[in-house]
## 1
Amino acid sequence: MSFPSFDSFPSLDPGPSSQPDESALSKKLDERKDSDRKRERGYEPRDDRAHRDHKREREHSHSENKGDRKRAHSSRDKSSREHKDRHRSSKHETSSHRDRDRQHDTQAQRSATRDVSNQDLALFVSDRRGDKLNITYGSLHASSIPRFRRKGKDVFGAEMGFKIIHESSKGVEVGLLGRRPGMRYVDRAAATILHATEVQRLVKPLNRPLRREDEETGFIPLSNRAKPTRTRDKSFQELLLDGEDHLSSTSESEISDHDDDNDETTLTGHTADQEAIRLLEETLVQDPTSLTSWHSLLAHSLASIPIDSKNARKVRGEITLSVLSRALAAHDSNGTSARFRALYLHAGESVWSADKLTAEWETALRTVRSKAQIYLAWFNWRLKVRMRAGDIASVAEDASRTLRALDGPSMEIARVGVILRSARFFIEAGYHERGIALFQAQIELAYFCPETLRNAPLSTQLSVFEEFWDSEVPRMGEDGATGWVTWMQSPSIESDTSARTTRRRAYEPASKAGEDHYAQWYEAEVHMDKQHNRPLRTTDESDDPYATILLSDIRAFLSIIRTDEGRWFLLHAFLAFLGLHIPDLAASFDHSTSNGSDDDLAQPSDGWILPYSNRFVSSLFPESPVSDDWDVSAGIVVAKEDTESKRRATFGQIKEWPWKALHPLVGTAPKGVGRMWETVDTEHLDHEFIDNVFTQMSNVLENDDDWDTLHIAFQASMSTKSAAKLSKSLLAKRPDSLVLWTTHALLEQIRGRNDEARAVLKANLIDSSPATSRPGAAEMWWHWANLEWMSGDVDRTKEIILASCDQPITSGVGLLKAKRTLDDRITASTSDRRHWICLRALFELIVTSNASFALEVFVKVNDVEEQALLDVCSSLMLHHFAHTLRNPCPAAVLRTHAETTLGRNPENTVVLGCFIESQRGQWSLDRNKKLRSTQSAGGRPRRLVRTLWDIWNAGQERGEYAYERLRQSLNQAANQPGVSPLLWKIFLALECHAGTPTRAKNVMFRGTGDCPWSKDLYLPAFGPIQSAFKSTELSHWAESMVERGVRLRQELDIFTQNQDDHDMDDGEDLPAVEAEIEHRAHELRRLMPY
């Protein structure tokens, strides 16, 4: 709290005065000094004799002061008369007179103040003769303000209790009770301290271990001793050189002092990053093959370079090269890591020349241990190089080399990854027909190959397959397709292309008056890419040369896939390519291609496996970053009521969990809400084509319950009624399948028909009494018990669990026998053990109503993969128990379990959602920052699916800085190797949604530099962010798309020519417009002041 100084107060009533002579002035100054010294001595405590001496001196001083006052008054009267005469005779010399008058007034006021200071009861004195020059000059000069004497630290006019703390030329600082307020984090001094380079940090003493009590409590107590004397701060290099000598030179007496005082801690004069780097250097000297330590050293070295700083990419690349070059030279085994080589090569892209970069990639292909990982990373790099040069035709050569290098049955999944990456590349570059044709041909070779050619070489198969391809018969996914093997048996089948001809229609843009023609061309391209994606036949009429796909266009991308695992992954990769997200597909692919080492990934594959659309991208961001959670009532800011509709969502639209952890029709909420495929996930897809794929493959995959379950789930995302019809038709063919009956019961629950679901479950479990070892029996028991539990009927749930154990007795003995039976089945079972564990945990939960006892059941598993599945089940069970069913549960149990499972499953969105729910009301900025971190153990970056979840989570947060937090997350993810176009599309959509076209333009340039083949990164220049471009820039941008090989459905010149013609038509009124402009210019010149 601050008040203005007395210098800003007006004078009380000063009178006119004149400047005295120098001798009188010096004499008065000497007298004033003597008086001040005597007064100071008078206030000091003395004995009685000294007090009497002081009293006589004060009386003597008082008599002298009387004479001084008389002389001062007479001098002032005389100077006043002289002043009046001088003022009448020197009207034009007011400036010099003003200066002399100011000096005199100052001296006179000092004399008057000194006289008043000896009067204890007089606080101020008034001079009633005003200065007439104040009227002449309009104000009082600062030097003419009367002198004052402050009595104590009180402030006149301030509230009681406020006293002066500090005084300066600008004013005085006032505080309550004269105490200085504490420093806040927003103060400048606090910011200076936080940003200081020299800091002291409390660390664990290096020369002795902590006490057992300190280790158990988890903190280091502060010392009660005085602060040690700081010496000169050494440089970081000196600390590294003499650190050990300093520790060894510590005296024995000092060590004993440390042992006596258990509160002693060690103070270091360098930062935490420097301390961490020093410890990592010591670790690497002992073990140079520790890749985790090298990655940690790299992370600390890059921490001082902000990602968004100028030339950050080049500087960070040079630092990365320096650290990783040391690692490669330290030990030969470090160079065999795919992750290590990928980081090394990614950093070299911004530093090395093209020839050196190519040579380093060739070295990596020879030395890296995981061939699948390094060749996939090399293929991604070659896509970038080819498209920058506009040589899309040479991509086939790179794909062929990659497929040849990954030869053999053990590399089939990796080859499927190359096929999926190539097809995704064609889609992103605008060649949709070629991507679909590639998968059609590969599935025909893998599933519909004739028996006589199944073991033949690929060249032999393709020579025969070319006849089938050129016959123009329906292919996989098209109406009437029967497969290659059927055509070989009846080659006279002819193609019916009437349906396809009616689908391909030319887009005719509706020309609107005043609408920009660049925007029309943008809408035409987007519409045609969405609608015209199926390949045409040679008999179809089309002017597009890329719409018809010959076998020679895709021959180099085909391979032999014969194993069951490879064909399973091929089929599900096709579904992902068509737009259906398969949870855990990318993680399973990385696990298979990295020889089981998830930390040694060159580039995570979810960047090109995730099938998220543009509609999904636009739905990630909040409608408004401004918070509306507060209201004002009677001038008081209050929080609005937190209703369920406004509560922060727990589980979002990012769905990632282990395969088969949840049934395709089971979601994170009752009635299937949050399941794998919902309406919002499939409404933009080609339903007819995907349904044909499911139906045609069902005839090949005989009795595949998992495939039929996916088909029902896809139909349920569009219409639950049609899905019920499909389910009944499949059950009519296979009535003995418990998996299909369970799917049908879950479908009835989604439709809200719980009684029908109970009837289905009872008919298959109670009436028929199937064996517990029958496939699907344990899962059916679990879903039935879960149905009753979620309905709130605990007694009925207990009866069902007892019935599954063949225990009709509900007493204590029956409960104990049921627990023993479930434990025995958990021990004996293998495939259905997870469902028996869930039943056992649910039984413990409803009997004891204690969540801790139920969680102990899930801990009894040692298998890592099964533990990941059970983490999902336990998290949802605990979430439903505490939040959905509103049962009392300690918050500490929820938080502890959520943090434990999150450490094992950092990309599992079910676990992440439960973690968010457990932290509700306990959220902190540090936890949020740690949760959003893009780095994980071992230097492995977070997957793109985790980055998408972080973006969704940031969009759910409330506050005006949501966009900035999203930018930071995306900037960190964009600096990782192998960035996908999906990430750049999200970044671009964020800036468009934020209304910052200039930022969006910069992001678009960065994105097209990393992914020069992505058409979706070029098109926004003609649509959402067109305001940031000039017309000439747009024309050059379209030419760049053509030069790089990006496909354009229609020529831009057709639309711009229409605009030119329109401008020429408007040119008829050009003379009138020019005349008006000239008239306005003339008026502006006439009205100018000069």
## 2
Amino acid sequence: MSKLDANERALGPQQGHAPSPPGLDTNAILKYQWKQLNHITTDAIATILKKVTDKEWVLDQCVASVADDHDTIRVLLEHGLQLTETVMDDIIARCELGTQTKIDWIRAASSGEPLGHQSSQALLAAKLSELEILACKYRWYLLKYLNRLATHHELATAEKDARAKVEAKVARIQKPKSSHDPFDPLRIEQEPEPVSNLPLITGTYHSFRDMDLAGQACVFAEDGFVEGIRILFTRHNRETWPWRLAIVGRIPETCPTETYKDLLPQINPSTRSEKEWALDNTWRDMDWVEVAELRTLVFGSPDHEMDSYMEQLALTIEERRAAHGGDEAAVLDMVTIQKEAEELLPSPEAFPAPVERLSQWYTNRALAIDRDAGQMIEARRLIQWGTNHHIPYLETISEDLEILCKILYEIKPESRTPESRALWSSTVLDLSLQQFSQMNPMEVVRLCLATTDRLTIVQDIRQLVLPYLTVIVPRRWQRNNQAFAPGLGLPPGLDPNNSMSYLYAYLLSQSPEHLSWVGAVVEASKPVFEFEERILSNDMDLSWLTLSCMYGCRRVNEWKVMSDMIVCLPMFDQTEDVDEAVDKVRRAELRKDIFLPGGGDFTFSANDRPRISQQIDPINMYPAFVKYAPTPGLMQHALDTLEQHLTAAETLARYDLPVPLSWFLENSDSEASQQQMITKMARLASGGPEKMGERFESDDEWMLLLEDLIRLRGGERGGGVLGLASEQDIYREYLAGVLSCGKFGLAKAILFPPGLLPPLRLATAEKLVIDSSNEMYNNATSGNRHQGLMKMAYECLQVLPETTNIRREMDLIEATHFMMSTYNLTAPNSNTTILPLQIRSTENKLALVRHLIMTKENAYRDHAAMMELAIKLTGSVQKKSAKQQVETQVVGMLIEASLQEKNYVFAIQQSERLMDLLRVTGALDLSPDGSPKMRRLPKSNSFNAADPSSSLSLQNSKPALSVLTAPGTLNQQWNGQPEPAKPWELFLRVGSESAGRDYSKRLSAIGFALASCPADKIESVLELWRSLEMESVHAPVPEADPRRGVAGFMSTMMDRTGSTASSHSNHMGGAHGQGQGHGVMDRTGGQGPLADIIGRSRSPILDPRRENTMGSEHSQEGGRRRDKLKSLVGSIWNAS
């Protein structure tokens, strides 16, 4: 080497021109000089490399050496090719392939067509030497590098041009930056580096010549360098075309489809297979070394580069499998492994690719454009391009894109309501093509109309829904795609084979809250329009839909919309008569299908009706009406019924009693519900009794209400929506409403129409008037019958002629007025005035009288008013026996109150009155002569200790009377009030507490107490009687009687009793005068021995039959009294 170095130095600048020193190998010197070059030039190639005779070494240098410029590289490569030009001839000559094989070989290389069979077999059978194989390999690589050189030059030029266009476009868009930017005074912000200064993605030739062109094409695609892909597809189609789908699929989704549409796969319509890449002109001919048979001989495979790539792909998959945990884990995650391997090394695609694969690629590409770029228009253009170029199976996604683009770009949100705009933003804008493609037709219809309203629903249906339902859905059904089977997503009960059923289902679902939307659709479907202009062209479907929507609407203020809808419905011929009995059964089936769609018995309580009404679903109604009105004749009957119900609903709404139309279906056979509605109309239509019917300004409006009620019933024959109620029911409820609002004159005019029969029976009218009066009475807060509700209650009773029951209610009102207005009666244990309702609810109303007498000062003195009050309050005016009992109890109250006030004179007077009342009522057992029967006691050792074993009460004796007949009720109603005293207790108190009074009257009182007291009280009462009797015996005797002793005592007693008889009779007449005015019965018993002792005689007033004989008999009474007194006193003393 030192010698070569010396020689090289000796050559100096004249290298290549000086002759070689003798004894040295020229090839060795040239090789050494070539290797010592820092830069290869064309001169060096000409002066050094071309002079080397070692052909193999020169070929190796041509392949391995790299120059700095393209021209030098081209010269170098072309020199290597020139050295291999004769290899083909050498092979043909050595292997004796013949001239024909040579000709076929050259033709196949120039045309690209395969060799003939014989020539191919001959060439494959040739045995190439190692030098020939090596020469062929060198030629193959020299051609490859020469081609890559030309391609690299074209790619670099195209990329520079593309960048220049981008810079020009950016310059036009960007605003020039001011030289004095106030936001950057120090000019810190730097201008972005121009695109032209950035490194080329094509790279240098040194890296490009051995680069995987398919991978480089993917890099170009990711960068959007579409022209580079075209260049590679054109110049290196064999190396890039198998990865065409992966390469084009990596073009950014934001890139317009127009810029790369020629790269998209296409189908040749004549062959129905994938179309190959179309070359405008062949940029170079194939070389003889590139023939498949020769490459098989040289490289062992006709496509050794593909084989190498597949080996590398297999290694990549194995690496990813190992990264996922080996074979066992990879089985579960093979999809992920394949996806990761595809990212690194895409799998080649066979040519021609299956049409299904191409269709799936277009679909995936469109979904990616929508998902990653959100450019629905570009996705649609992509699919349209594929469809126009015969890619099959794109109809579904094309239809999806068509509808979705209409929703996105044809709906103008700015013209919608704010709610619709917000809904559009939240539903449509965020909707992806992937999501839309998975929707069933029902969901698509809802999406198309998601932002609609009353003003736009017709337009939206025409633009979006009808094209989808009338064109797209039937096409999909014809394609027999299981994903779009008929009826998918459709509610049960609707026709699955009718695509318009989806629109029906949507309208039915919206009708409860948006009936105006349905009304707009129905109006746009009038039968007067042309068939093509109608949205709903089928008359029966239109009618079924209208029936379901109107009856299913829950709003009660859509009457105008409903009226407009009925006008738009068709008229059917009434070809068949509807039997009422049959129609009743059909109506029952209709209600069952509507209100109990799951089946079951259509019987439920009134409490269940509101709950069932809330569950009404128009979608369930549609099949029910299809079943109810399957023919035009029955449909016309159903529409007539609908119109009748609508008229009734409008009438009810006019009186502020709105109900949905379904109410008439639900209650068509419910008499109770219809009766309840009549009551509501009668009571509430005018505003109700609380507002005194202020809504009606005149009687004419009241009469109009009556006419409406009768019309709703269906007139005299019935058959209306309230036809189950009788005419009597209507008049009764109507008059109840009239009376409750105080329209008594109107009520009287209706009850007694001139020249006509009364609409109600007298008993019914009487009960109606009394019930209305009671309602006013109970609601009154004041007892003054000259004002307020109490006045109305009294006047209400005057609507009818007075009857016993009406008189009783009038008496109650008058009694209430007296208690509350005159005495301002308060409730027990309270300082508040008692309410009328409390008075009526008191079961024992005499407790009220007692409360008044005992609490109001001097009330007992007005004993006549108290008696009248008790009689009216208890309603005993017309009942003689009840009236006597009331008088008896009231007198007892008067006695009790007078004793409480220590008015003993009044107490004695009323006790005498009570004695007479007890005689009249038969409350005591009397002797035939009218005196109380004698009650005897067995003798005992002690006067005050009675024998418990002995019976002290007489047989057949009546129980002791109580002043109030229901003390238990009184205790319940008037808590804390003392029990009323019994008559014998009152007599006992009068006789014992009236000290210093007339002994005869006191003895009479105690005598009645002795006759009516319980058996265990007889001894104590008799003891008091004896004490009082002895007190009366020892009282001072009048001086006119000189007798003393027993005869004097008897004479004095007889004189006393005789002198008091006439005065007592006069007094009783005065005391009972007022009581006779109140119906005290004129009846008394006879005079017995006890009556003579206590100084009682029969009152002339109480016994008018003997009034004329009293004077004549009076003279005889003295002797008889004396004899009776002697015998009675003797018997008493003996008994004691």
